[in-house]
Records
---
Amino acid sequence: MNTPQVLPRAITRPMRPHVPRVTSSIFKHLLLVVVGVVVAYPFYFMVTSSLKEFFEATQVPPTLFPTALHPENYAEVWSKQPWGRFFANTLFIAGVSVVGEIVIAVLAAYAFAQMRFRGKNVLFALVLATYMMPGEATLIPNFVMMSKAPPGVSPFFPIPRLNLYDTYAAQILPFLASAFSIFLLRQQFLSIPQELRDAARIDGAGHVRFLWSIVLPISVPALVTVAIISFYASWNSFQWPFIVTSSEAVRPVQVALNAFSAEAGSHYHLLMAAASLVVAPIVLLYLVGQRFLVQGVARTGIRG
Amino acid sequence: MSGGAIAITERAASRRRRGLIENAQAYLFLIPAIAFLGLFKILPAFYAIYISFFRWDIIQGAFRGLDNYFDILWQNSTRSQAFWQALSTTFTYAAITVPIEMALALIVAYVLFQKLAGRDFYRTIYYLPYVTSTVAAASAFLWIFHPQYGIANQMLGVFGISPLRWFQEPDGVFQMLGNAAGLAVPDWAAGPSLALVGVAIFSIWHFLGFQILIFLGGLGNIPVEYYEAAKLDGASQWQLFRRITLPLLSPQIFFVFTIASIGVLRAFNEIFVLTNGGPLDTTRTITLLLFKTFFQQGQIGLGSAMGVLLTLIILAFTLIQFRVLERRVTYS
């Protein structure tokens, strides 16, 4: 035995041979692969079904891989509905939401993290309270606010009527200020050393310049995290736009996909093609920005 | 002397001036956030309560006081029955989903945390459902679990099990198991409908990655020295997990438990797409009932009362979570 004497226990318990370690790592991989296959299968199913031809898609038992690829399914789906319009709608809504949310959150987070003012704790508690308020609490009143005041009812009191039903604004405005983003950025801005602020002040920089030329450049990862999470939430949002829109002109992709599932009926190779189209951009964004999304979720724990 | 005093008052004045400017600037920075949060989050919370006090069918009607609440809770037999059934369905759904999801996520995270080839690849796959839109993923699930064409039934067929109706099956799972074994199961023991179990399967699939992610973060915080010391003392794998990992991971376990419970209480999109509350209302949770009442029946006052009740339940969970997390922060 050439086991060193400093580890007496290692002598009394013989060193574990290599074989069990390998089998245990095989078991681990087996578990991870099985879970991985189950998790990934719906995506595989979605994409392969979207490339099958009608009869093959409903064949029993289903084929694991299409016998012939039919990418023209995508062209057919595209021609059945104004998907270009739906994607443009969602991109526009998501884009404006992301930019607006970041601007508003940066300003508020900076004030909470780096400025001294009266009523800071009260205002911060107020923001905290909105973070705890679930969407179910505000769903109905927000819907009432978005609708038009019926004849004879004041559009201001007791409930303001914004008359924004079936518009982009109705899909954007309620999400512009997000307590979640304010928290995340405040955390980031709090971590900026006081010396930096002091140095900037000595150089005569006010808050606006300090924020613009020092704080923002070193906070880019946190900003990207907020942007990605906000974009993702906007892209996947379904219930609210389903409630406050009716026309195709402002309809986002998720609502369009839901409507298309009724139209597609048993032509589910077409439905899967549409679903793949709707999922593809967000999956690509995830693969590119995985690091930022993971950081943001790990730090704050959101659940979509 | 007097010159010094003037200098001091001047300095104090300038400090006060600076303070005033900073105050004004801070408020300016906060105006957009407070305005939007106020208009779309804070005021609506009060409006929800206000609306719930009225008969409000599409347009505002007579003041009813707490009658909407009484109707939902016991006065109106149809409504109260629907409400309590929905509440029971919601908690059953939570009871199926949350423990299985957490156990699975914990096991996978524990294995994934060890040094293994391809870790990042597995992780990328596991997180994928979490970012996928519910509408798209649920429509794929509808076909995977289709009674006639779905691959799920094909797989069951391999084991000699006859095809199931999955999202269209209102029968309880225990009842079905009993029938298969030739036992008569009483109604109270019928269990959740297979459709609800199907929704739970979807939910577990959708959120598993999120929980794995949180657990991985927690595992990363546990000092390696603890494991090394325990290994030197001859601790087995199971002992390492039981005595070190579980206790030190308890904050994350608790966090995931409350977040998952709240998520399940709030679940709407997946149920809407997969079953729309059916079959025979066996998957009609509170959120679905609220949506039906408010959006399809136009009963805005009643729906609002339901929303307030649901909010109270969710807030209770949130407050417990904040309390416990706060305590953890102050102790550590």
---
Amino acid sequence: MSERKLFAHELEVRLDELLLLSLRQRSAAEPAALLETLPRELQERVLHWAGVAAQTSDDLGWLIASRAAEQAASLGAQLDDWARAGLDAYDHSGLAATRRALNDFAAAHRAGAFESQEGVAFGAIEGRLSRFLHALEGRPLKLASGARAWTDSETLWLPERLDAAPDAAGNRRLYKAIAALLWAQTRFGSFNIDPEPELAQWPAPEPALRWFALFEAMRLEACIARELPGLAADIAGLRGPWPAQLAATAAALARPQASAADSLACLAELRRVGAGETPNFPHVGALDPLAARRVRAVRIARDTATLRQALNLLRAVDPSAGGQDHPDYPPLAAEGQTQHVDPQAEFVALPPPARAAARSLQQDLGEIPPEVLQAAGPGAWAPVDGVDSYAAVTVTTQPDAFYDEWDYRRAAWRHGWCHLYEMKAPVGDHAWVDEVRTRHAHLIRSIRRRFEALRGEDKPQRRQFDGEEIDLDAQVEARADRKSGTEPSPRLFIHRRRIERSLAVMFMVDMSGSTKGWVNDAERESLVLLCEAIEALGDSYAIYGFSGWTRTHCDIYPVKRFSDRYDAATRSRIAGIEAKDYTRMGVAVRHLTGLLARQNTRHKLLVTLSDGRPDDYGDEYRGRYGIEDTRRALLEAREKGIRSYCVTIDRHGADYLPQLYGPAHYAVIDDAKKLPQKIAEIYRKLTG
Amino acid sequence: MNPARNSAPRALATPLVHLASEPYYHATGDELEVFASAAKSGLPVMLKGPTGCGKTRFVEHMAWRLQRPLVTVACHDDLTTADLVGRYLIVGDETVWMDGPLTAAVRAGAICYLDEIVEARKDTTVVIHPLTDSRRALPVEKRGEYIEAPPDFMLVISYNPGYQSVLKEMKPSTRQRFVALDFDYPEAAIEARIVAHEGGVDDDTARKLVKLGGLTRKLKGAGLDEGAGTRLLVHAAQLIASGMSPAIACTAAIARPLADETDTRDALDDLIRAVF
């Protein structure tokens, strides 16, 4: 790359190309003028990120380009992290959130938070922290990055990057301390009281909330100390001693019987005496009780409904069960113990979801309200507001799984990006399969014959302690040894041991629109032949079709699961494989290798059948993005011990294949009609 | 005189263990009574539960309680029928029949404990079938022998239902022959007593170890295949009792054996630090 700076007019042209600004009647003149002053390297970084963003959306590209022009000079080396934070925010919440995220990041940067080179990014500590939090008691919490540290009692947001401590270890400890205190908010009842009456009396809610968060942090630290003394010591070490004027308050809130109400009382007291500047402690996250209490109210309604329903079902089966008088249900809320939550509570007779709901309710309310346990007659409970619609939403639109997708331009994952649905495979005409079997009867016979030879064979093992036959060589040797006076070996037998093939194969079949016609016919015929052949071998195999329409509709069609037999129903589903929408390959590979990895065989093989490069609606997945993501998914498969083999039908040679299938082996078939003949041979070579 | 003549069989002889002193075991339910009744009625017993929760110790304890010798076989995927029943060995000029551990246990009227039975090859489990129904006999095909089990013989198997694998499921035809006892990690207070007793640490340390164990068990399926069993906690306690610092002992005895993956290891280190 040349070292010369780009001039404004050159930058303007580049930006216009990237963002198609002239079409949108925007002018790149202003950002170009700002960028002109930057060194070439930084200019190129800005252009790079503008291009990356533009591939997601033009508006996002414009936003990144224009903001980067203003802020690149001050961000310097942090530009990449800044842009990633923005793109991440866009993925989750759209353009407005991106604007906020970019501003927050830049503001934090200006505030000097990122000066140290020893900062720790959220992404670098996410895996470790999420496991740590998962192990702690209480309701499971999701972990996400956001502008500030806070929790709505179900998700825990942590800053994108921490830089307050001079070294990386210190910043990691700080992340842990912030996360632990936020966890403690949900665990030790910070949201179990309503602070609104008190907050209403403050002229501005912001300082009041900060003080409240601080008082709660004092109380929660003591709560943590009782359960996890080492963690509390870590937190105490980070914050240093409390300022003298706060020490008495901290001691009072550290009493075992202190609750969130006491913190609120401290807040009221403070209002009377007049609050000064809030001391700043980096380990204290924000407290947003109003937002959290909204989430909590929805959850309580949901949990109550779940628990009631389970209890009603239980009573319907056994009318004597349930209610507070039943010996299996000791009073669930022990009086005077409202803050103490026993995770091992007595809900053994309940199904797991109801048990989880009961525990969650205990955590939210300190006790299970008696009215929940009251007999309400089978099915007579009134659904609490919002509960029914919640259930309806989860049933109809909840994807079966979320998958990350690799974005090579960001060199980062897009978390939970693809929404995967397992659909019902369409059923086709069974007669078609019969016709194929008749037409290819000769081919099927010869394939079966060849495959039978591959079947798990008996291999004789020589020189065994025991076996079905005598090993003559060993006998002769032993005799000679004995004659010569040396000790003969006692291993004198041949043992025939069946060598099992121990192989599971997953066929991943492209059902994209481009397969319509010959390719689809060839795929289906090949699958019929393959099934006939593999049945002769006795390998365990499955067939799944994949297609989709954008990242929010990645569909998987189980044609034959591993547990399904090759019967009439399966054959009809093979006949029913049809051309549908697009080819988002990465997510399909990830999902199917996940299924395959669960198979308990020594060897696992993923065979993809497709007709060209990965593609999806919109420009994004087409081209290098899709290729890189698929390649990454195949690499992940290899790490799981799964071998992949890709069969591609493409009559126009295929220059992208080595790049795409780098981690896998592949075969290109130029004529779809040849696929049925070739596929069995490919399989035989692969597994022979 | 060929020295090999006598040494080979002795090396392969099945250890029939007679337990002289009481192996420590803390009952958590009615398992002592169920096992004793099964022993009296000549019924085989199956112990189900996660790794390191006291299944093997329980069998040892019961062998001592019932005053019967104990034969333990750790099953593995190459374990053949001959490994269990016995085989002919050639010693010098003769062939010598060598009883396998199962045959030896049947002859001696011992308790035969097949640990992690699902690990053994499928055909191996079939050989125990005649011993587990009203026949209570072991056919030794190679010798044409049919050994009827004495009343004191008892078959005990264990398996870990936590391995969520299709191949390691036990066939219903095998499962339904056994009286089954469910084992799980003991509740915290009892587990602390066990760790304190076995590991030789004070109550406070034992309680912390148990707390740590409980936290790791929540990671099952989220980074770990299985949380720390009581056995691992006891190991950590023993290291602490020998003078090691709790953090190092727990890292060595609990965190490292459980996980290889970096994030999980780091999270376990964080948990250890949090508890101590």
